[in-house]
Amino acid sequence: MDQMKLLKSRELANSVRYSRDLHDSSLGLQPSSLQEVTDLYYRNAVEIHKDITPELEQSVLGVCKKLSVDRSVVTVFVNSSAELQAACYYTDTQTCLIRFSSALVNLLDPKEFEFVLGHEIGHFLLQHAPSATNSQSAEYFNFQRAKEISADRVGLIGCGDFLTSAKALIKTASGLESRLLKVDVNHYLTQIERISLPDIGENPLNTHPSMLIRTKALNDFSRSNIHENYGSIDPRKLFVVDSKITEHLDKYVDKKLRQKIKKAGDDLTLWIVAKKIIEDGKFDKIEQKTFSDFFGIETLEKFKNFLNSVNTLNIKKEIENKLFNSKQRLENLSPGSLKKNYDTAIKVLELF
Predict the structure, then answer these.
(1) Last residue of a domain, one of 218, 253, 288
(2) Same domain for 209 and 325?
(3) What is the pTM of this model?
Protein backbone atom coordinates (compact mmCIF):
# COMPACT_ATOMS: atom_id res chain seq x y z
CA MET A 1 0.00 0.00 0.00
CA ASP A 2 1.28 3.43 -0.98
CA GLN A 3 0.81 5.60 2.13
CA MET A 4 1.65 8.80 0.27
CA LYS A 5 -1.06 8.01 -2.27
CA LEU A 6 -3.56 7.46 0.54
CA LEU A 7 -2.54 10.76 2.12
CA LYS A 8 -3.13 12.47 -1.23
CA SER A 9 -6.54 10.84 -1.59
CA ARG A 10 -7.42 12.18 1.88
CA GLU A 11 -6.35 15.67 0.87
CA LEU A 12 -8.57 15.43 -2.21
CA ALA A 13 -11.57 14.31 -0.15
CA ASN A 14 -10.97 17.09 2.36
CA SER A 15 -11.06 19.62 -0.46
CA VAL A 16 -14.81 18.99 -0.86
CA ARG A 17 -15.65 18.65 2.85
CA TYR A 18 -18.84 20.50 3.81
CA SER A 19 -18.03 23.48 6.04
CA ARG A 20 -20.19 22.27 8.95
CA ASP A 21 -18.47 18.90 8.88
CA LEU A 22 -15.93 19.99 11.47
CA HIS A 23 -13.00 17.59 11.47
CA ASP A 24 -12.04 16.71 15.04
CA SER A 25 -8.52 15.38 15.55
CA SER A 26 -9.67 13.76 18.79
CA LEU A 27 -12.21 11.55 17.01
CA GLY A 28 -12.41 8.12 18.57
CA LEU A 29 -11.82 4.86 16.78
CA GLN A 30 -14.63 2.56 15.75
CA PRO A 31 -16.07 0.72 18.77
CA SER A 32 -15.13 -2.84 17.68
CA SER A 33 -11.86 -4.34 16.55
CA LEU A 34 -11.67 -4.19 12.76
CA GLN A 35 -10.34 -7.75 12.70
CA GLU A 36 -13.31 -8.95 14.75
CA VAL A 37 -15.75 -7.28 12.36
CA THR A 38 -13.87 -8.60 9.31
CA ASP A 39 -13.84 -12.14 10.70
CA LEU A 40 -17.57 -11.88 11.36
CA TYR A 41 -18.22 -11.00 7.72
CA TYR A 42 -15.85 -13.65 6.39
CA ARG A 43 -18.01 -16.14 8.29
CA ASN A 44 -21.44 -14.70 7.46
CA ALA A 45 -21.16 -12.68 4.25
CA VAL A 46 -19.48 -12.72 0.83
CA GLU A 47 -16.43 -10.64 0.01
CA ILE A 48 -16.56 -8.75 -3.27
CA HIS A 49 -13.84 -10.28 -5.44
CA LYS A 50 -13.21 -10.75 -9.15
CA ASP A 51 -13.62 -14.54 -8.86
CA ILE A 52 -17.07 -14.49 -7.27
CA THR A 53 -18.65 -11.06 -7.90
CA PRO A 54 -16.86 -9.82 -11.05
CA GLU A 55 -19.31 -7.04 -11.93
CA LEU A 56 -19.25 -5.61 -8.42
CA GLU A 57 -15.46 -5.91 -8.39
CA GLN A 58 -15.26 -3.77 -11.51
CA SER A 59 -17.33 -1.13 -9.74
CA VAL A 60 -15.02 -1.22 -6.72
CA LEU A 61 -11.95 -0.87 -8.95
CA GLY A 62 -13.55 2.04 -10.82
CA VAL A 63 -14.45 3.95 -7.65
CA CYS A 64 -11.04 3.38 -6.10
CA LYS A 65 -9.42 4.72 -9.25
CA LYS A 66 -11.57 7.87 -9.28
CA LEU A 67 -10.82 8.52 -5.61
CA SER A 68 -7.09 7.68 -5.95
CA VAL A 69 -7.37 4.86 -3.39
CA ASP A 70 -5.48 1.58 -3.69
CA ARG A 71 -7.88 -1.37 -3.99
CA SER A 72 -5.93 -3.09 -1.19
CA VAL A 73 -7.07 -0.39 1.25
CA VAL A 74 -10.74 -1.38 0.95
CA THR A 75 -12.39 -4.69 1.84
CA VAL A 76 -16.03 -4.91 0.76
CA PHE A 77 -18.64 -7.47 1.84
CA VAL A 78 -22.27 -8.12 1.02
CA ASN A 79 -24.39 -9.75 3.70
CA SER A 80 -27.89 -11.16 3.41
CA SER A 81 -30.37 -8.61 4.76
CA ALA A 82 -33.72 -7.12 3.76
CA GLU A 83 -32.63 -3.75 5.16
CA LEU A 84 -31.28 -1.08 2.81
CA GLN A 85 -27.98 -0.53 4.54
CA ALA A 86 -24.30 0.21 3.98
CA ALA A 87 -21.62 0.91 6.58
CA CYS A 88 -17.94 1.69 6.87
CA TYR A 89 -15.65 0.43 9.64
CA TYR A 90 -12.03 1.28 10.40
CA THR A 91 -9.71 1.32 13.38
CA ASP A 92 -6.69 2.97 11.78
CA THR A 93 -5.99 5.35 8.91
CA GLN A 94 -4.68 2.67 6.55
CA THR A 95 -7.51 0.22 5.84
CA CYS A 96 -11.28 0.03 6.02
CA LEU A 97 -14.10 -2.48 5.71
CA ILE A 98 -17.33 -1.63 3.90
CA ARG A 99 -20.46 -3.70 4.28
CA PHE A 100 -23.52 -3.68 2.01
CA SER A 101 -26.83 -5.39 2.61
CA SER A 102 -27.95 -7.65 -0.23
CA ALA A 103 -31.22 -5.71 -0.49
CA LEU A 104 -29.35 -2.50 -1.25
CA VAL A 105 -27.03 -4.10 -3.81
CA ASN A 106 -29.97 -5.80 -5.56
CA LEU A 107 -31.90 -2.52 -5.66
CA LEU A 108 -29.13 -0.45 -7.22
CA ASP A 109 -27.76 -0.48 -10.75
CA PRO A 110 -23.95 -0.87 -10.96
CA LYS A 111 -23.28 2.87 -11.32
CA GLU A 112 -25.67 3.65 -8.45
CA PHE A 113 -23.79 1.10 -6.36
CA GLU A 114 -20.64 3.09 -7.14
CA PHE A 115 -22.18 6.22 -5.63
CA VAL A 116 -22.94 4.46 -2.34
CA LEU A 117 -19.53 2.80 -2.33
CA GLY A 118 -17.86 6.18 -2.91
CA HIS A 119 -19.97 7.62 -0.10
CA GLU A 120 -18.74 4.94 2.32
CA ILE A 121 -15.11 5.32 1.21
CA GLY A 122 -15.66 9.04 1.75
CA HIS A 123 -16.39 8.39 5.44
CA PHE A 124 -13.05 6.58 5.68
CA LEU A 125 -11.06 9.23 3.81
CA LEU A 126 -12.65 12.03 5.83
CA GLN A 127 -12.09 10.06 9.05
CA HIS A 128 -15.71 10.13 10.10
CA ALA A 129 -15.20 7.94 13.16
CA PRO A 130 -17.51 8.29 16.18
CA SER A 131 -17.32 11.87 17.35
CA ALA A 132 -15.55 12.98 20.52
CA THR A 133 -18.60 15.18 21.15
CA ASN A 134 -21.01 13.98 23.83
CA SER A 135 -23.17 11.45 21.97
CA GLN A 136 -26.22 12.49 24.01
CA SER A 137 -26.10 16.08 22.79
CA ALA A 138 -28.03 17.52 19.87
CA GLU A 139 -24.70 18.85 18.61
CA TYR A 140 -23.46 15.27 18.12
CA PHE A 141 -26.32 14.45 15.78
CA ASN A 142 -25.88 17.77 14.01
CA PHE A 143 -22.25 16.86 13.29
CA GLN A 144 -23.30 13.43 12.05
CA ARG A 145 -25.74 14.95 9.57
CA ALA A 146 -23.05 17.30 8.26
CA LYS A 147 -20.77 14.31 7.67
CA GLU A 148 -23.36 12.77 5.33
CA ILE A 149 -23.33 15.89 3.15
CA SER A 150 -19.55 15.57 2.76
CA ALA A 151 -19.64 11.83 2.10
CA ASP A 152 -22.32 12.29 -0.59
CA ARG A 153 -19.92 14.61 -2.43
CA VAL A 154 -17.22 11.96 -2.41
CA GLY A 155 -19.84 9.46 -3.60
CA LEU A 156 -20.67 11.72 -6.53
CA ILE A 157 -17.00 11.89 -7.48
CA GLY A 158 -16.75 8.11 -7.08
CA CYS A 159 -19.53 7.43 -9.58
CA GLY A 160 -18.90 10.50 -11.73
CA ASP A 161 -22.50 11.48 -12.45
CA PHE A 162 -25.07 13.47 -10.47
CA LEU A 163 -28.16 11.84 -12.00
CA THR A 164 -26.81 8.43 -11.02
CA SER A 165 -26.19 9.68 -7.48
CA ALA A 166 -29.69 11.13 -7.26
CA LYS A 167 -31.21 7.88 -8.52
CA ALA A 168 -29.38 5.97 -5.79
CA LEU A 169 -30.75 8.35 -3.15
CA ILE A 170 -34.29 8.26 -4.54
CA LYS A 171 -34.23 4.46 -4.81
CA THR A 172 -33.08 4.22 -1.21
CA ALA A 173 -35.84 6.61 -0.12
CA SER A 174 -38.55 4.73 -2.00
CA GLY A 175 -37.29 1.15 -2.15
CA LEU A 176 -38.47 1.07 -5.78
CA GLU A 177 -36.57 -0.73 -8.53
CA SER A 178 -35.56 0.86 -11.85
CA ARG A 179 -38.53 -0.63 -13.72
CA LEU A 180 -40.91 1.38 -11.55
CA LEU A 181 -38.98 4.65 -11.56
CA LYS A 182 -38.62 7.41 -14.08
CA VAL A 183 -36.24 9.59 -12.17
CA ASP A 184 -37.00 13.28 -12.54
CA VAL A 185 -34.81 14.99 -9.97
CA ASN A 186 -36.42 18.40 -10.39
CA HIS A 187 -39.86 16.94 -9.75
CA TYR A 188 -38.61 15.00 -6.72
CA LEU A 189 -37.11 18.18 -5.29
CA THR A 190 -40.46 19.98 -5.52
CA GLN A 191 -41.47 17.83 -2.53
CA ILE A 192 -39.43 20.26 -0.44
CA GLU A 193 -41.76 23.09 -1.45
CA ARG A 194 -44.78 20.99 -0.44
CA ILE A 195 -43.61 20.60 3.16
CA SER A 196 -46.23 22.59 5.03
CA LEU A 197 -44.42 22.91 8.38
CA PRO A 198 -40.71 23.34 7.57
CA ASP A 199 -40.02 25.00 10.94
CA ILE A 200 -40.60 21.70 12.73
CA GLY A 201 -37.56 20.33 10.93
CA GLU A 202 -36.43 16.71 11.07
CA ASN A 203 -35.86 14.46 14.05
CA PRO A 204 -32.88 16.05 15.91
CA LEU A 205 -31.72 12.56 16.91
CA ASN A 206 -31.32 11.41 13.29
CA THR A 207 -27.72 10.85 12.21
CA HIS A 208 -28.68 11.38 8.55
CA PRO A 209 -30.67 14.15 6.89
CA SER A 210 -33.62 12.86 4.85
CA MET A 211 -32.87 11.57 1.34
CA LEU A 212 -34.83 14.55 0.00
CA ILE A 213 -32.57 17.08 1.72
CA ARG A 214 -29.44 15.11 0.81
CA THR A 215 -30.51 15.11 -2.84
CA LYS A 216 -31.10 18.86 -2.68
CA ALA A 217 -27.67 19.45 -1.13
CA LEU A 218 -25.95 17.24 -3.71
CA ASN A 219 -27.88 18.93 -6.52
CA ASP A 220 -26.62 22.35 -5.38
CA PHE A 221 -23.09 20.99 -5.15
CA SER A 222 -23.19 19.35 -8.59
CA ARG A 223 -24.66 22.41 -10.31
CA SER A 224 -21.54 24.31 -9.29
CA ASN A 225 -19.43 21.79 -11.29
CA ILE A 226 -16.93 21.78 -8.42
CA HIS A 227 -16.65 17.99 -8.58
CA GLU A 228 -15.42 18.19 -12.17
CA ASN A 229 -12.29 19.92 -10.89
CA TYR A 230 -11.42 17.36 -8.23
CA GLY A 231 -7.84 18.12 -7.32
CA SER A 232 -8.07 21.84 -7.99
CA ILE A 233 -11.12 22.97 -6.02
CA ASP A 234 -11.84 26.70 -5.84
CA PRO A 235 -12.54 27.32 -2.11
CA ARG A 236 -14.42 30.53 -2.90
CA LYS A 237 -16.84 28.62 -5.10
CA LEU A 238 -17.22 25.94 -2.43
CA PHE A 239 -17.98 28.62 0.18
CA VAL A 240 -20.87 29.95 -1.92
CA VAL A 241 -22.30 26.44 -2.38
CA ASP A 242 -21.90 25.58 1.30
CA SER A 243 -23.69 28.78 2.31
CA LYS A 244 -26.66 27.88 0.13
CA ILE A 245 -26.78 24.33 1.48
CA THR A 246 -26.49 25.57 5.07
CA GLU A 247 -29.46 27.87 4.48
CA HIS A 248 -31.56 24.91 3.35
CA LEU A 249 -30.45 22.71 6.24
CA ASP A 250 -31.30 25.45 8.72
CA LYS A 251 -34.71 25.93 7.15
CA TYR A 252 -35.80 22.33 6.66
CA VAL A 253 -33.76 20.24 9.11
CA ASP A 254 -32.26 22.10 12.06
CA LYS A 255 -34.14 25.38 12.45
CA LYS A 256 -35.90 24.57 15.71
CA LEU A 257 -32.77 22.95 17.13
CA ARG A 258 -30.59 25.96 16.27
CA GLN A 259 -33.16 28.27 17.85
CA LYS A 260 -32.97 26.22 21.06
CA ILE A 261 -29.17 26.34 21.05
CA LYS A 262 -29.18 30.09 20.51
CA LYS A 263 -31.73 30.61 23.30
CA ALA A 264 -29.69 28.47 25.70
CA GLY A 265 -26.51 30.36 24.79
CA ASP A 266 -28.17 33.76 25.19
CA ASP A 267 -29.54 32.69 28.58
CA LEU A 268 -26.11 31.58 29.76
CA THR A 269 -24.57 34.90 28.73
CA LEU A 270 -27.38 36.80 30.45
CA TRP A 271 -27.00 35.02 33.80
CA ILE A 272 -23.21 35.35 33.76
CA VAL A 273 -23.71 39.10 33.31
CA ALA A 274 -26.49 39.12 35.93
CA LYS A 275 -24.17 37.55 38.49
CA LYS A 276 -21.72 40.39 37.97
CA ILE A 277 -24.39 43.09 38.05
CA ILE A 278 -25.77 42.17 41.47
CA GLU A 279 -22.36 42.01 43.18
CA ASP A 280 -22.67 45.62 44.39
CA GLY A 281 -26.37 45.25 45.24
CA LYS A 282 -27.62 47.75 42.66
CA PHE A 283 -28.61 47.99 39.01
CA ASP A 284 -28.21 51.66 38.13
CA LYS A 285 -29.38 53.56 35.05
CA ILE A 286 -26.03 53.32 33.27
CA GLU A 287 -25.93 49.55 33.77
CA GLN A 288 -29.52 49.26 32.59
CA LYS A 289 -28.68 51.20 29.42
CA THR A 290 -25.69 48.93 28.72
CA PHE A 291 -27.82 45.86 29.46
CA SER A 292 -30.56 47.05 27.11
CA ASP A 293 -28.08 47.85 24.33
CA PHE A 294 -26.83 44.27 24.33
CA PHE A 295 -29.85 42.17 25.33
CA GLY A 296 -32.71 44.41 24.18
CA ILE A 297 -35.34 46.46 25.99
CA GLU A 298 -37.75 43.52 26.35
CA THR A 299 -35.13 41.38 28.10
CA LEU A 300 -34.20 44.34 30.31
CA GLU A 301 -37.80 44.68 31.49
CA LYS A 302 -38.03 40.94 32.18
CA PHE A 303 -34.79 41.05 34.15
CA LYS A 304 -35.96 44.04 36.20
CA ASN A 305 -39.22 42.23 36.97
CA PHE A 306 -37.18 39.20 38.04
CA LEU A 307 -35.06 41.32 40.39
CA ASN A 308 -38.19 42.90 41.90
CA SER A 309 -39.87 39.54 42.41
CA VAL A 310 -37.06 37.90 44.37
CA ASN A 311 -36.21 38.52 48.01
CA THR A 312 -32.96 40.50 48.25
CA LEU A 313 -31.49 37.87 50.59
CA ASN A 314 -32.09 35.13 48.01
CA ILE A 315 -31.12 36.98 44.84
CA LYS A 316 -27.56 35.61 44.60
CA LYS A 317 -28.75 32.04 45.11
CA GLU A 318 -31.53 32.47 42.52
CA ILE A 319 -29.11 33.80 39.92
CA GLU A 320 -26.63 31.00 40.67
CA ASN A 321 -29.43 28.50 40.04
CA LYS A 322 -30.39 30.23 36.79
CA LEU A 323 -26.75 30.23 35.70
CA PHE A 324 -26.29 26.56 36.54
CA ASN A 325 -29.49 25.52 34.73
CA SER A 326 -28.70 27.55 31.60
CA LYS A 327 -25.23 26.04 31.47
CA GLN A 328 -26.71 22.53 31.78
CA ARG A 329 -29.21 23.21 28.98
CA LEU A 330 -26.51 24.47 26.64
CA GLU A 331 -24.17 21.61 27.54
CA ASN A 332 -26.90 19.08 26.78
CA LEU A 333 -27.69 20.70 23.44
CA SER A 334 -24.32 21.94 22.23
CA PRO A 335 -21.28 21.43 24.50
CA GLY A 336 -19.07 22.91 21.79
CA SER A 337 -20.88 26.25 22.20
CA LEU A 338 -20.01 26.69 25.88
CA LYS A 339 -16.63 28.34 25.36
CA LYS A 340 -18.00 30.66 22.68
CA ASN A 341 -20.76 31.86 24.99
CA TYR A 342 -18.40 32.30 27.95
CA ASP A 343 -16.11 34.34 25.69
CA THR A 344 -19.10 36.47 24.65
CA ALA A 345 -20.07 37.00 28.28
CA ILE A 346 -16.54 38.15 29.17
CA LYS A 347 -16.69 40.76 26.41
CA VAL A 348 -20.10 41.95 27.61
CA LEU A 349 -18.86 42.17 31.21
CA GLU A 350 -16.16 44.59 30.05
CA LEU A 351 -18.93 47.03 29.19
CA PHE A 352 -20.16 47.26 32.78
Answers:
(1) 253
(2) no
(3) 0.83
Q: Pick the last residue of a domain from 222, 253, 284.
A: 253
Residue 213: how many CB atoms within 10 A of its CB? Answer: 22
Same domain? 47 vs 130: yes
Helices within the chain (DSSP H only):
3-14, 34-44, 54-66, 102-107, 110-125, 138-159, 162-174, 185-193, 211-223, 235-252, 255-277, 285-295, 297-309, 315-333, 338-349
44 plus 143 within the same structural domain: yes
Please list, in sequence order, all residues whose beta carbon lies within 8 angstroms of the beta carbon of residue 136, skipping any fewer than 6 positions away. Answer: 332
Q: Tell whether 127 and 246 lie within a shared domain.
A: yes
Are 274 and 310 contained in the same domain?
yes
Q: What is the pLDDT along the chain (352 residues), one digit of tens a residue?
A: 678 888 899 999 999 999 999 866 554 455 567 888 899 999 999 999 999 999 999 999 999 999 999 999 999 999 999 999 999 998 778 899 999 999 999 999 999 999 999 999 999 999 987 655 666 678 888 888 999 999 999 999 999 999 999 999 999 999 999 999 998 999 999 999 999 988 888 888 888 999 999 999 999 999 998 888 888 888 999 999 999 999 999 999 988 888 888 999 999 999 999 998 888 888 889 999 999 999 999 999 999 999 999 888 889 999 999 999 999 999 888 887 888 888 888 887 887 7
Containing structural domain, residue 215: 3-20+27-253
